[in-house]
Structure formats: C-alpha cells, structure tokens
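Objective 1.3, modelling of assemblies. Example input:
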Amino acid sequence: MTAQDVELPIVSNEDVVRVRQLVRAVAAEAGMSLVDQTKIVTAASELARNTFVHGGGGSARVESVVNARGRAGVRLVVTDNGPGIPDIDKALTEGWTSGSGLGLGLPGARRLADEFELDTKAGEGTTVTVTKWIR
Amino acid sequence: MSDGAGKAHLPELLRSGREAVLDRWLEVVLEGVRGRITERELKAELTELYALIERAVAGGDEEAGRELRAALAEISRSRARQGFSPSETAVSVFAVKQALLEQVSATADMQAYAEFIEFSSWVDDLGLVTFETYASAREQVIADQMEQLLELSTPVVKLWDGILGVPLVGTLDSARTQVVMETLLERLVETGAQFAVIDITGVPAVDTEVAQHLLKTVMAARLMGTDCVISGVRPQIAQTIVALGIEFGDIATKASLADALAYALECSGIQVTGRTEA
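Predicted structure (tokens):
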C-alpha cells in the first residue's frame, strides 16, 4: 500500500480511526520502529479527535518527508475551521481541559512527536503540524 | 398501465413474443450475474416476473401490480444478501425494456412505440422499487453485522473461580466501552468475582480517550468491590502512555495475561504448584 500525501476528512469518530490507520500505514512504510509508529499514531489519534470534538471537524494530511540532512520521517497536518484556541499556554498545560477529557491530549501529542507546531486564530481555526523522524 | 384494452398492441406483443423477449431478457441479465445464480434459477425468476408484467400491462389487474412489486422486492433483497451491486440488481429489471424494444422495432408499429414509451417509464418506477429495497436490505445487513460485532468483541470469560477475564480487541470507543462496562458489571453481580483482568493486547493504540474509558471501567468495577488488573501492556504502549502523561494510579498493570492471572491468584491466596512425585 502506497499511502503518501493523502488527505482525509475528519467529520466522525470513524474518521479518527481512519486517520490512525493511515498514519500507521505511512509510518510502517517509511520503516519506523514499532515504538515510534505507536507514538505518532497515538499523537494522530489525539489531534484528530481534538479536531472532531473541539474544532467541529476538519481534515488531516499525512505525508512522508525527508529533512535537509536526508533523514526520513512522517508528518501529519491537522486543520479545522473551528473556534480556535483562545489560550495556547493553557491548552498545552497538562490536566487542563475545556471538555470532559483528561486534558493530556495536546501536551501529550507534543511530547510524542519530534516537532510540534500550533497555529491558531480565534474564530478562524487551528492547524497543528507534528513530525516524527526515523531514528 | 391500465388503459389500452381496445388499442392494446403492447400486451399482444408481450403475449406473442413471450419466448423471444424472455430469452433475450435472460441473455442480458445472465451477462451481469457471472455465475452467481444458475441459469435455471434466473429463468424461473424472470418467467414469474414476466407473467406478472404481462398481467399488469394487460390492465385492470391491480393485484398483479402488487404481486410484481412484492416479487421484485424479494429478488432485490436476495441479490443484496448475495453481494450483487445495486446496478447489477437494477439491470435485471431494466433489461426487459431492451428485450421488448427489439420486438417492438421488429414490428415497426407506431402505436406499439407509443405504448412502449409509457411501458418504459413504468419499468423505470419498478427499477426504483428494486433499488430502494436493495438499499434497505443492505442497511439491514450492515446493522446486523455491527450488532454481531459488538457482541462478539466484548466477551467476559471466567479465568478461575472469582477471576474474570475481559479480552479487548480493536478500537475502544465510547459505544464499545459502554458495552464492555455493562457486560463486565453484570457478570460481576452474577459471579461475585473478586478480580477482573482487562486484557488490552488486542488494542492497537492507547490514547487519552481509551485510557479514560479504561479508568472509568476500573472505577465502576471497584465500586462494586472488584479489583481490576490491566494486562497486555506492550513496550510501545507503555512508552506512549508515559509520554502522554497518563496516570494509572494504584491500578495494577501487567505485561501479559499470564502475569495478571498469576497476580490475581496470588492475591486470592491460591497457590499453583507443579505435581511432585512421591
């Protein structure tokens, strides 16, 4: 299965599972270790669910990337057009939740990935980009 | 199709050309079924339909129209269960137009053409009936399978006297957690078990939602006086849970189901020893 640069919609709970399966497929194809595969898959799961629950749905793009030093990795870009995150520091604080979750999803995803980028504007939406490099 | 008793060219054509139209119809439909139905079965089906169409087209027979719809519904339901595609199913109906049109054009009868147009839109309606039945039959199949899966995927088994096992496989969403929790708590009441081992070997990824569901299940069981052990924590899952910062608190976790069973046995004061020959 060649799954590269694929974009998936996130509008239901089933789509979260689909994003997870796609990330796993891309990571496995890139030759990532099982531990790192599980990490990026879990990060994808958290971010996709955030998009679905808080962002009111959006989309996820998964791509295999190579950095300047020739290192391969997997990048996931999750975008929504939701209300945005009013307080980024708070959202990245462990245990703080705006809903009924554990409040570990966003900070957890940041720690699971090697690179983490959060771009949000109130009322316009949120884009989160995470990258995991192959060790 | 009701009128036309006086100028009925089409009913006459249907009667006189019965063999030819049926054979052609059968031929067209057979192309699509690719051996999933035998020719004889198909011929019996189509002959029955043809007789009903004849009666309905002749007019004045409302019973025939109802029977025809019922017969079509039955056929589309069985097609849906046999895994035919919607268009393959609808073609079995639409093909009669093609077969009949060949007869009509052979006669070059303008009146028959005019009647054929009416017949054609009537067959289109029948096609829609098959399509709708097909869709609802497929939805029924999917609903049945989902229910079976939900039941299949959440067994609670007895591992030992007073020790229950809950092997979880696949994605753990809210609906499934609810079923797992209900089944587990019911079995706890029935058996009065002291320990429950929740095995997550078959859960591919444990994220915060799965963890939260697990914690809630353990809490509920605990309120009923049962201690839970979570087993099947593989290295990659352990590392991910640590990175996510999920705390399992004082809940016992084990790498394998065997470890968890041994732990539960030990806590229950049961000793398992190999037999020694005297």
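The beta strands of chain B are 157-160, 163-169, 195-202, 227-231, 252-253.
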